[in-house]
């Protein structure tokens, strides 16, 4: 999956929360606006219908080589792992935090029929299992699995991966990736939206997010048309629901025992946000404030209705005209500066509407997801919230505002999100757990550590599980120490429910990096055990590194090639 934003020297993204504030009448008025009722008359008048197909039969798979993997596992712990139907209870009973590892973005071939670098995947899984890793995370790309046409699903390559994970005793976090791969930090490959979706977006370019200059963004279908049948007769929400239902049915025998989490994509990079800081073509660069994405006609129609509802029709013509451009800083703009327009009656109205539209989008997709996966015991649903730590120390939090998080010195932007997730029993996933304040450029007022503390408090207040990721690939003990301290070395009620390590690749399997990673996994899984010392962990990690050396060498070579 696409990574969150990061500075080239190590700054990356995070999430924040601030003291709660009461919703105003402006928010209440804005929240009553529904995209379907406010779309202009020029919107395509298509008949809504949901098209489904019978799931394709599971394909026979080549058996995974058991010999070397079994030998290495026996050398490490000598215990076979039993599968459990109640995975949630199993994870909760563990003392530490389970570690998952993100698979490469192009794990499945673009034709969807098989795996890329199958030998590398096979050897890597065996090595990860021997190191004590709980499982893997993989993007299930909309642009691959439904590429051929509406409701024509091809999960063959993913079936091969799930079977390989099962045979290695690894759990799977499956990401429903309804976004484009390419254009964000860490996107090493390009996987566009399905061709038939892009055809509709070419016919009606207002299906794409649009900025003040008219620049279109094709990473994700605009949330402004969520409830309109603009994709070959289906609404975007119907498309997402049908895709998830087909995935559930196709992998029914894996749900709850191998597949233990469904992360539901909700925007660019799979995150619940607007595409306010696109890196493609140099549009944005760190630590720019980004731009509001509310200029497609569906979003503007909703804004117009919201403004009329509060008796201020002049506020409904466009977004703020003085909010600057992608690469500017807060103090460069009248809207975001210290006492700028963000803190006026108009600014409060606009940000309430803009953020409420994002919340309603999340609500719609989560309602669809819970409807699909409720009958799958042992499967958690999670949502990724973008970590935006730059300019967090300012009053306006400009970069968060353009992304859709109404989080300022005076207004909490994350408790509403956490509470929305809580209504559906979803886990909140966020990044930058490995980062420290002093590693970041101070002139941009980056505050990753405080950010992590605040989002943890928001999750606790909402009664939801909190999971984490590292924002950038890190193999050093300093980063590992920070993750362990932040995610695992807490009271049981404050620990994260899982941590996903970014990312499987040849660098991870370099000898020193692999030894340090094995020690990191041991520390995470053993957090809370008073009798576990650092020296013991290092000895055990060295044993793992020695036992898995053949697998690791094979994986590193295969991944490099």
TrEMBL record:
Recorded catalytic activity of this chain's protein: Hydrolysis of (1->4)-alpha-D-glucosidic linkages in polysaccharides so as to remove successive maltose units from the non-reducing ends of the chains
Xref: InterPro entries: GH, Glyco_hydro_14, Glyco_hydro_14_CS, Glyco_hydro_14B_pln
GO terms of biological process kind: polysaccharide catabolic process
Top-level taxon of origin: Eukaryota
EC number: 3.2.1.2
Keywords, ordered alphabetically: Carbohydrate metabolism, Glycosidase, Hydrolase, Polysaccharide degradation
Active-site residue numbers: 271 (proton donor), 469 (proton acceptor)
GO MF: beta-amylase activity
Binding-site residues for substrate, renumbered to this chain: 139, 179, 187, 384, 389, 431, 470-471, 503
Gene3D superfamilies on file: Glycosidases (3.20.20.80)
Family indicated by similarity: Belongs to the glycosyl hydrolase 14 family.
Protein name: Beta-amylase
Organism: Panicum miliaceum (Proso millet)
